[in-house]
User: What shape does this take?
Amino acid sequence: MADTLTFKIGDRKAVVDSVMLKAGHGVLRESGFKSEIRLPVSELHPGNNLVTLELKLKNGRIIRRERDLFVVSDIVPDTFSLEVLRTLPHDTSAFVQGLVMHDLMLYESAGLKGRSRLRIIDPVSGECVKDVKTDPALFNEGIAFIGDTLFMLTWKDSLMLRYDEDLNEKSRHVFSSEGWGLYSRNDTLCFSNGTNKIVRYYPVTGSAPDTLFVINEKGPVYYINEMEWIEGNIYANIYGSDDVVVIDAETGKVIAVIQAGELIDRKEYPEAGVMNGIAYDKESKRIFLTGKNWPFIKVCSLHFDD
Assistant: This one.
């Protein structure tokens, strides 16, 4: 896309009094009649923008013209490579939906109705120290902690559930969205719903004031799934692939891609599903990666590829 957009306005009969250019609810330009308005693309946000050109005529009449403009990312993503440090055993019956580190233990959500579970795993040995069957009517999805409370999404069941650290259910409430991935920042949850949106959500009030649109240099990045907050960026699985994208938390732009398919030999493990599990140990700066019905959890460090 060009760096600057040009809007040309014809007024042969000199009937235009003023011109206003808006994007969303914000006014970008406002002036008396001009035959041309120039707008740097940098003034639009990444993703879709509804741009409105509003002409006020001298007789008081308003003429509006609207156009959807999609701004792609100006960043070509870098690549990160993985160094596998250890391999932990993993239950191949676990259809992994979420993975998170809390209080030196790994917590895992496994989905499928009738087979949904929550599990606590020792991150040193890979031993499952607790395995709890959850409501068989629900399809477990992403999990995240705020304090000592574990929050869990469900896929299409319109519920969010709360558990304590021992996996005892404490409450559930209506959650009016599909649930996919989930991570936490301070007292806030951020969830994905299978689109290219990451929505900020306050569990105390139930409000969802902000949405981040994930894009790369080609356009929107759909199927954002399991997520983790790592050193100021969002790491996310892309459902249907083994890729992990690294997302700028302020702009939604993909800044790097980790091609994690190298972690598993599909010929050796034909029953294994896609990668879907990212947990981060802040102390050791290690990333734990697994997938749906994978036979292992890989403990990795990341390296930037020059």
